[in-house]
Amino acid sequence: MTTAIMPGCESFSAEKGPLGVLVLHGFTGNPASMRPLAERAASAGYSVELPRLPGHGTTVEDMMTTTWTDWSDAALASYDALRARCEKVAVVGLSMGGALTAFVAENRKDVAGCVFINPMVKPPVEEMVDGLRALLDAGLETIDSIGSDIKKEGSVEASYDATPLACAASLFEAIQTVNAELAKITAPSLLLSSREDHVVTSDNGDDLVRKATGPVERVWLEDSYHVATMDNDQELVESKTLMFLDSVLKS
């Protein structure tokens, strides 16, 4: 049986010109948080793919059947399909989508550029990992949601109302490899970092700046929390992203 997709959380696809943009959403989130940016890229003439990652946008129970391997395989497959019909492709990701953006760039040398929006690319501290293991060992399956960390009043992310712990453990383990291979990112990158983020600390971005071997332009977001694509800095995020895409795809 296929679980119904939550309204507004569907994948987004636009077939435009020969230049492509892959857009990746975050952990327990869905395409809704990235759709305005994806639609703006499409309006600018780019072919865009914004996939709904496995287990997302339906139910927490669905997500509990998935792991990093499912999400990263889906990201790579979407990139490969877009690249097969485009001359150049850039990748844009928020939060775990940023981790997936790094993963794609580490495994596909022809990535034209990367946009990281409050990316998770640094392994959590050992105390957090130990605490997660203890909760799992005690038989706990979920904790409170990490979603909708947004400063803008009235803006709410359509994320899950709970965080599946086994999925988080899978993500934390994968981030160690992603972080260890950041030097493989040779493409130009744009890093958009919120000064105040209650989900992913800004030292994740510090690691990206320090370890990536391609040039990294960092822009600080002064009026947004984690889900900056839906927050007070949305226009800045979108305009900076489009300027960057033009620079790496049209050059």
What do these coordinates show?
- By secondary structure, the protein is α/β, with parallel strands linked by helices.
- It has one domain (12-249): Alpha/Beta hydrolase fold, catalytic domain (Rossmann fold, 3-Layer(aba) Sandwich), CATH 3.40.50.1820.
- It contains eight helices and nine strands.
- The protein has helices at 35-43, 60-63, 68-85, 96-107, 126-137, 165-180, 203-211, 234-249, and strands at residues 12-14, 19-24, 47-50, 88-94, 113-117, 142-144, 162-164, 189-194, 216-221.
- A seven-stranded mixed β-sheet has the order 1-3-2-4-5-8-9, sandwiched between helices. It has a two-stranded antiparallel ribbon with strand order 6-7.
- Helix 5 (126-137) packs antiparallel against helix 6 (165-180).
- The longest helix is centred in the N-terminal third of the chain and has 18 residues, at 68-85.
- The protein is globular, with a radius of gyration of 17 Å.
- The model has no long low-confidence stretch (mean pLDDT 94).
Quote the average pLDDT.
94
Report the β-strand fraction as a percent range: 15-25%
Helix content: 25-40%
CATH third-level topology: Rossmann fold
The helix/strand series, from N terminus to C terminus, equals EEHEHHEHEHEEHEHEH
Strand order of the largest sheet: 1-3-2-4-5-8-9
What structural class results from the helix and strand content? alpha/beta
CATH superfamily: Alpha/Beta hydrolase fold, catalytic domain
Instruction: Tell me the overall shape.
Output: globular
In a nutshell, what does this entry contain?
The chain has helices at residues 35-43, 60-63, 68-85, 96-107, 126-137, 165-180, 203-211, 234-249; strands at 12-14, 19-24, 47-50, 88-94, 113-117, 142-144, 162-164, 189-194, 216-221. It has 8 helices and 9 strands.
